[in-house]
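Before relying on records like the one below, remember that each one covers exactly one chain. Contacts with other chains, cofactors or solvent are not represented anywhere in the record.
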Amino acid sequence: MAGTSGRSLLGTIFEGVSGIGMIGSAMLTPFLNPRRRTWGATATEIDQAYPGDELVPRVKGAYTHAITIEAPPADIWPWLVQLGQGRGGFYSYELLENMVGCKIRNADEIIPEFQLLELGYAIPMHPTMGTPYTVAAIEPLRTLILQIREDTETGSTFSIDEGYPEKYRNMSWAFVLRERSDGSTRLVSRSRNDWDDSLGNTVFFCLFGPVTLMMDRRMLIGIKQRAEGGNKRK
Protein backbone atom coordinates (compact mmCIF):
# COMPACT_ATOMS: atom_id res chain seq x y z
CA MET A 1 0.00 0.00 0.00
CA ALA A 2 1.26 3.47 -0.80
CA GLY A 3 2.65 5.34 2.13
CA THR A 4 4.34 3.95 5.18
CA SER A 5 4.22 4.93 8.80
CA GLY A 6 7.14 5.25 11.16
CA ARG A 7 4.87 5.15 14.19
CA SER A 8 4.59 2.03 16.31
CA LEU A 9 1.45 -0.07 16.45
CA LEU A 10 1.11 0.86 20.11
CA GLY A 11 1.28 4.54 19.23
CA THR A 12 -1.41 4.13 16.58
CA ILE A 13 -3.66 2.28 19.03
CA PHE A 14 -3.14 4.91 21.73
CA GLU A 15 -3.92 7.67 19.25
CA GLY A 16 -7.05 5.82 18.11
CA VAL A 17 -8.31 5.28 21.66
CA SER A 18 -7.74 8.96 22.36
CA GLY A 19 -9.72 9.79 19.22
CA ILE A 20 -12.60 7.56 20.29
CA GLY A 21 -12.74 9.39 23.59
CA MET A 22 -12.73 12.82 21.96
CA ILE A 23 -15.33 11.89 19.36
CA GLY A 24 -17.51 10.26 21.99
CA SER A 25 -17.33 13.43 24.04
CA ALA A 26 -18.26 15.48 20.97
CA MET A 27 -21.28 13.28 20.31
CA LEU A 28 -22.47 13.79 23.90
CA THR A 29 -21.95 17.56 23.90
CA PRO A 30 -23.49 18.86 20.64
CA PHE A 31 -24.04 22.26 22.27
CA LEU A 32 -20.26 22.79 21.98
CA ASN A 33 -20.23 22.21 18.22
CA PRO A 34 -20.35 25.94 17.38
CA ARG A 35 -16.97 26.29 19.11
CA ARG A 36 -15.64 23.15 17.48
CA ARG A 37 -16.57 24.50 14.05
CA THR A 38 -14.09 27.37 14.50
CA TRP A 39 -11.25 25.52 16.23
CA GLY A 40 -7.98 27.44 15.99
CA ALA A 41 -9.36 30.12 13.66
CA THR A 42 -9.27 33.84 14.34
CA ALA A 43 -12.34 36.03 13.93
CA THR A 44 -10.87 37.38 10.69
CA GLU A 45 -10.26 33.89 9.31
CA ILE A 46 -13.78 32.82 10.22
CA ASP A 47 -15.40 35.81 8.52
CA GLN A 48 -13.09 35.90 5.50
CA ALA A 49 -14.22 34.67 2.10
CA TYR A 50 -11.97 32.04 0.55
CA PRO A 51 -11.58 30.56 -2.91
CA GLY A 52 -14.07 27.75 -3.26
CA ASP A 53 -16.82 29.35 -1.17
CA GLU A 54 -18.74 30.03 -4.36
CA LEU A 55 -19.00 26.30 -5.09
CA VAL A 56 -21.50 25.91 -2.24
CA PRO A 57 -23.61 29.09 -2.23
CA ARG A 58 -26.30 27.54 0.00
CA VAL A 59 -24.82 26.30 3.26
CA LYS A 60 -26.46 24.06 5.85
CA GLY A 61 -23.29 23.02 7.63
CA ALA A 62 -19.78 24.44 7.67
CA TYR A 63 -16.60 24.82 9.66
CA THR A 64 -13.41 26.86 9.49
CA HIS A 65 -10.40 25.41 11.30
CA ALA A 66 -6.87 26.82 11.35
CA ILE A 67 -3.44 26.15 12.78
CA THR A 68 -0.05 27.86 12.84
CA ILE A 69 2.77 25.79 11.41
CA GLU A 70 6.37 26.81 12.04
CA ALA A 71 7.39 26.18 8.45
CA PRO A 72 7.02 27.90 5.07
CA PRO A 73 4.28 26.86 2.59
CA ALA A 74 6.85 24.93 0.54
CA ASP A 75 7.29 22.51 3.47
CA ILE A 76 3.53 22.09 3.99
CA TRP A 77 2.22 21.86 0.45
CA PRO A 78 3.60 18.36 -0.34
CA TRP A 79 1.65 16.91 2.60
CA LEU A 80 -1.57 18.44 1.27
CA VAL A 81 -0.97 17.30 -2.29
CA GLN A 82 -0.75 13.64 -1.30
CA LEU A 83 -3.96 13.58 0.76
CA GLY A 84 -6.32 10.72 0.10
CA GLN A 85 -7.13 7.07 0.67
CA GLY A 86 -4.60 4.91 -1.13
CA ARG A 87 -2.32 7.94 -1.23
CA GLY A 88 -0.76 9.63 1.81
CA GLY A 89 -3.80 9.26 4.05
CA PHE A 90 -5.35 12.08 6.05
CA TYR A 91 -2.94 12.30 9.02
CA SER A 92 -5.85 11.86 11.41
CA TYR A 93 -7.06 8.96 13.58
CA GLU A 94 -5.88 6.09 11.40
CA LEU A 95 -7.29 3.39 13.67
CA LEU A 96 -10.78 4.93 13.63
CA GLU A 97 -10.75 5.30 9.86
CA ASN A 98 -9.77 1.68 9.43
CA MET A 99 -12.49 0.48 11.80
CA VAL A 100 -14.96 1.48 9.07
CA GLY A 101 -12.91 -0.08 6.29
CA CYS A 102 -11.10 2.97 4.93
CA LYS A 103 -7.78 1.11 4.70
CA ILE A 104 -5.88 4.29 5.51
CA ARG A 105 -2.18 4.34 6.22
CA ASN A 106 -0.96 7.79 7.10
CA ALA A 107 2.36 8.61 5.50
CA ASP A 108 5.18 10.08 7.54
CA GLU A 109 7.11 10.95 4.42
CA ILE A 110 6.60 12.81 1.17
CA ILE A 111 5.75 10.30 -1.56
CA PRO A 112 7.04 11.43 -5.00
CA GLU A 113 4.43 9.54 -7.05
CA PHE A 114 1.63 11.46 -5.33
CA GLN A 115 3.10 14.93 -5.81
CA LEU A 116 1.38 15.48 -9.16
CA LEU A 117 -2.14 16.79 -8.63
CA GLU A 118 -4.32 18.39 -11.30
CA LEU A 119 -7.89 19.57 -11.83
CA GLY A 120 -10.36 16.72 -11.83
CA TYR A 121 -8.17 14.25 -9.97
CA ALA A 122 -10.11 12.01 -7.58
CA ILE A 123 -9.32 12.07 -3.86
CA PRO A 124 -11.10 9.07 -2.32
CA MET A 125 -12.03 8.77 1.35
CA HIS A 126 -12.83 5.03 1.22
CA PRO A 127 -11.68 2.32 -1.21
CA THR A 128 -15.18 1.16 -2.18
CA MET A 129 -17.82 3.35 -0.55
CA GLY A 130 -18.91 6.92 -1.12
CA THR A 131 -18.18 9.43 -3.83
CA PRO A 132 -14.57 10.68 -3.90
CA TYR A 133 -13.75 14.35 -3.75
CA THR A 134 -12.37 15.83 -6.95
CA VAL A 135 -9.86 18.63 -7.31
CA ALA A 136 -11.91 21.71 -8.20
CA ALA A 137 -9.08 24.25 -8.04
CA ILE A 138 -5.40 24.23 -7.24
CA GLU A 139 -2.85 27.01 -6.81
CA PRO A 140 0.48 25.51 -5.74
CA LEU A 141 1.75 26.63 -2.33
CA ARG A 142 -1.48 28.55 -1.70
CA THR A 143 -4.82 26.83 -2.28
CA LEU A 144 -6.25 23.35 -2.79
CA ILE A 145 -10.01 23.02 -3.23
CA LEU A 146 -11.84 19.69 -3.25
CA GLN A 147 -15.50 19.17 -4.10
CA ILE A 148 -18.29 16.61 -4.18
CA ARG A 149 -21.36 17.66 -6.15
CA GLU A 150 -23.64 14.71 -6.62
CA ASP A 151 -27.19 13.81 -7.58
CA THR A 152 -27.54 11.04 -5.00
CA GLU A 153 -30.27 9.27 -6.99
CA THR A 154 -28.29 8.94 -10.20
CA GLY A 155 -24.72 9.24 -8.91
CA SER A 156 -23.97 11.91 -11.51
CA THR A 157 -22.80 15.46 -11.03
CA PHE A 158 -24.98 18.49 -11.75
CA SER A 159 -24.73 22.22 -12.46
CA ILE A 160 -26.25 24.53 -9.86
CA ASP A 161 -26.90 27.02 -12.67
CA GLU A 162 -29.41 24.52 -14.06
CA GLY A 163 -31.06 23.90 -10.70
CA TYR A 164 -30.72 21.34 -7.94
CA PRO A 165 -31.92 17.76 -8.27
CA GLU A 166 -34.44 16.39 -5.80
CA LYS A 167 -31.75 14.56 -3.83
CA TYR A 168 -28.20 15.86 -3.73
CA ARG A 169 -25.06 16.67 -1.83
CA ASN A 170 -22.91 19.68 -2.60
CA MET A 171 -19.72 19.84 -0.56
CA SER A 172 -16.46 21.78 -0.74
CA TRP A 173 -13.27 21.37 1.27
CA ALA A 174 -10.65 24.09 0.91
CA PHE A 175 -7.10 24.24 2.22
CA VAL A 176 -5.54 27.69 2.24
CA LEU A 177 -1.92 28.54 3.11
CA ARG A 178 -0.97 32.05 4.21
CA GLU A 179 2.69 32.72 4.95
CA ARG A 180 3.42 35.17 7.77
CA SER A 181 6.24 37.65 8.16
CA ASP A 182 7.97 35.54 10.83
CA GLY A 183 8.32 32.60 8.45
CA SER A 184 5.46 30.57 9.89
CA THR A 185 2.31 29.71 7.95
CA ARG A 186 -1.37 29.67 8.76
CA LEU A 187 -3.15 26.63 7.35
CA VAL A 188 -6.91 27.06 7.08
CA SER A 189 -9.28 24.16 6.44
CA ARG A 190 -12.79 25.21 5.43
CA SER A 191 -15.69 22.88 4.69
CA ARG A 192 -19.03 24.04 3.29
CA ASN A 193 -21.92 21.61 2.83
CA ASP A 194 -25.43 21.68 1.38
CA TRP A 195 -27.85 18.78 1.00
CA ASP A 196 -31.49 17.98 0.46
CA ASP A 197 -33.70 17.30 3.48
CA SER A 198 -34.10 13.59 2.88
CA LEU A 199 -33.85 11.29 5.90
CA GLY A 200 -30.67 9.68 4.62
CA ASN A 201 -28.81 12.96 4.28
CA THR A 202 -30.14 14.29 7.58
CA VAL A 203 -28.94 11.20 9.44
CA PHE A 204 -25.61 11.20 7.58
CA PHE A 205 -24.69 14.79 8.37
CA CYS A 206 -26.04 14.71 11.94
CA LEU A 207 -24.12 11.53 12.69
CA PHE A 208 -20.86 12.29 10.95
CA GLY A 209 -20.80 16.05 11.50
CA PRO A 210 -19.27 15.91 15.00
CA VAL A 211 -16.93 13.13 13.88
CA THR A 212 -15.70 15.23 10.97
CA LEU A 213 -14.97 18.18 13.24
CA MET A 214 -12.68 16.10 15.43
CA MET A 215 -11.04 14.27 12.53
CA ASP A 216 -10.26 17.54 10.74
CA ARG A 217 -8.76 19.02 13.90
CA ARG A 218 -6.52 15.99 14.28
CA MET A 219 -5.56 16.17 10.59
CA LEU A 220 -4.30 19.75 10.94
CA ILE A 221 -2.24 18.75 13.96
CA GLY A 222 -0.88 15.79 12.00
CA ILE A 223 0.16 18.03 9.11
CA LYS A 224 1.79 20.46 11.52
CA GLN A 225 3.82 17.68 13.16
CA ARG A 226 4.99 16.34 9.83
CA ALA A 227 5.83 19.71 8.25
CA GLU A 228 7.73 20.90 11.30
CA GLY A 229 9.54 17.58 11.57
CA GLY A 230 11.24 17.99 8.23
CA ASN A 231 10.57 16.69 4.74
CA LYS A 232 11.32 13.00 4.77
CA ARG A 233 11.09 11.50 1.30
CA LYS A 234 10.27 7.94 0.46
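The two ends are 13 Å apart (CA to CA).
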